[in-house]
Amino acid sequence: MVQKVAVIGAGISGLTSIKACLDEGLEPTCFESSHDIGGLLRFKEKPEPGRANIYQSVVITTELANNMHHSEVLLYMRLYAQDFKLLQHIHFKTTVVSVRQTPDSAATGQWEVETERREGQRETRVFDAVMVCTGHFTQPHLPLSDFPGTRNHYIPYFLSHLNETHCSCCYSNSVNIQCSLIGVYLSTRSGAWVVSRVGQRGLPADLVGTSRMDMMIQKLFPSWINGMVEKKLDETFDHALYGPSHIFCVPDFFEQIPVVNDDLPARIISGRVQVKPNVKEFCGSSVVFVDGSIIDEVDVVVFATGYNYSFPFLPPALQAKSGYRLRLYKHVFPPALTQPTLAVVGFIHSLGAINPLAEMQARWATRVFKGSFTTLPSEETMMKEIEKDTVTIYACSEQNPLQVDYIPYLDSLAEQVGVRPNILWLFLKDPRLALEVWLGPCTPYQYRLTGPGRWAGARQAILTQWERVLQPFRTRLVPKPETRASSRRSVIVMFREIMEDEECVRHLHSLGYPLLQMKIC
User: Fold this and answer.
1) Cα 436 to Cα 431: distance, rounded to the nearest angstrom
2) CA 308, CA 231: separation in Å to the nearest integer?
3) Contact between 506 and 514 (Cβ < 8 Å)
4) pLDDT in tens, 205-246
5) How far apart are CA 364 and CA 346, in angstroms?
């Protein structure tokens, strides 16, 4: 029987996993290699080896506020950890060195977890289950071998902070550029669709067009919806105009992860950023592009080319791939295990927040651990579903192997947990709530309406969610202007008074308005 659970990592996935363990009556022990919680969302003044870092001005879309600064998101995570008493279960400055099955794991499902403290002390403990929450931003991807001349060029190719006003070349398909520089050249091989954080009427873009009804229409008419989205994006700024057409020859919108950036169009139109094609080679301090153009005296090259995932502490047998994807059933469980006591949480990407995805994965994993509530299908069935899972609305490729459809994926796990909302039943029982669940943005409250982990305040939270979205805008209260209809009535009344005044009528007639001799009845 599973009781003691090792949680590796104290980012958002690790915190939700600790809470899920506590909700199911399990005993979690979390190991975090750094000195604090937050993971990727905690900005580091000095980058740490083997640990990804966000840039200082990053803004994150969340549900509690509209596009909070990363420091505010970290504050929310601290409040979350304090409110649910998670900190007491975390061992900081402790790195997991290895995770291996015990000799009798076929029967018990147990794992030996070896850890190392900053001071060098090592310790091995046995756990009934393991939750891996280290994410997929672990090893920087630096494709230096793809470009001739990288061994001989004289340009620094990576800097964490660009504080000086120099000329730089950024190579990336999706990059947020710090443009306090004299010249920035954005080199991109295939281009990308650029999406603003601000949606229709100034509302958060991730809350517009993300309802269950929108997802159903998208599923029924994928080509039409794709064309509509691309047309809307081109109305904001023409992607072909802002970069040579051969650069912005991008795939369909739903086949590639878009770039969320509000500043890039303004930087391009002001000339502070120039879009260039793929880099051909480096020659000394010059950069040569595939179209033959050359930029001389480049001071720094920033490779914003993403990260490769890595789980050095796991046995190689658990890191087998299916195509470009790690072989995990529903992106969580390795299918080859005799006992399903190891789960990967937060190793996923979608057009939606990671928090609800990781939370739902953790809720499902902990119930599978307990065994009496949820069981997994046979290994053969799981393998078939893994192979089928690669054929989604997103093309599974080396660039986006972790991509899933947000609402369908959440619903598939919610059904396993027993918390998926029954829309038809809601329309019969509570039509007002049903309409908001069907037509409104799909927020995590929907998975707290019923079943395990039910929250009594979920219904009210759903019905009032737009109030919380609008509240941050109400920083300057002004009286409502008079309606257009009342203004029109005032003009009519004034005109009637003029026409009833004979002296005014004679004056207007003398100015050349003969029709105004007629009075209004």
Assistant:
1) 9
2) 33
3) no
4) 888 888 999 999 999 999 999 999 999 988 888 888 887 444
5) 13
Q: Count CA atoms closer than 13 A to 97's CA, side-chain side.
A: 12
Compute the C-alpha angle 23/350/413, nearest 5°: 40
* Structural contact between residues 383 and 371, judged by C-beta atoms closer than 8 angstroms: no
CA distance 497 to 505: 11
- 43 CB contacts (<8 Å, ≥6 apart)? 53, 54, 56, 58, 70, 71, 74
413: tokens are: 């796990």
Specify the amino acid at residue 351: L
Kindly state the helix (H) or strand (E) to which residue 242 belongs, with its residue range: helix 239-242
What's the farthest any 2 CA atoms get from each other in the chain? 110
Contacts of 451 (CB under 8 A, 6+ apart): 417, 418, 419
3-state class of 289 per DSSP?
Answer: strand
Q: What is the pLDDT of residues 10-19, one digit of tens each?
A: 999 999 999 9
The kind and range of the H/E element at 18 are: helix 12-23
Residue with tokens 């002001």: 270
In this predicted model, which residue has the larger pLDDT, 27 or 470? 27
Separation between Cα atoms, residue 462 and residue 468, nearest integer Å: 10
pTM: 0.82
Beta strands at 279-283 and 342-344: parallel, antiparallel or unpaired = unpaired
Phi–psi pair at 90, nearest 5 degrees: -110, 130
Measured CA distances, 56 to 43, 59, 77, 400, 447 (Å): 7, 9, 18, 25, 33
**Class of residue 136 by CB neighbours under 10 A (exposed 0-12, middle 13-18, buried 19+):** buried
Q: To which residue do tokens 């469980």 refer?
A: 333
Q: How far, rounded to the nearest angstrom, does the alpha carbon of residue 440 sit from its chain's CA centroid?
A: 19
Band (159; pLDDT cuts 50, 70, 90): very low
Contact 113, 127 (CB under 8 A): yes
- Dist. CA 480–CA 457, nearest whole Å: 33
Rounded to 5, what percent of the chain is helix, strand, coil?
Answer: 35, 20, 45
Cα 29 from Cα 5, distance rounded (Å): 6
Amino acid making up residue 213: M
The whole-number pLDDT of residue 58 equals 43
In this prediction, residue 507 has a pLDDT band, given cuts at 50, 70 and 90, of low
- Distance CA(442)–CA(445), nearest Å, equals 8
What pLDDT is stored for residue 304 in this prediction? 80
The structure tokens listed for 331 are 């992106």
Residue type, 365: A
Q: Distances from the Cα of 309 to the Cαs of 139, 144, 349, in angstroms?
A: 6, 18, 13
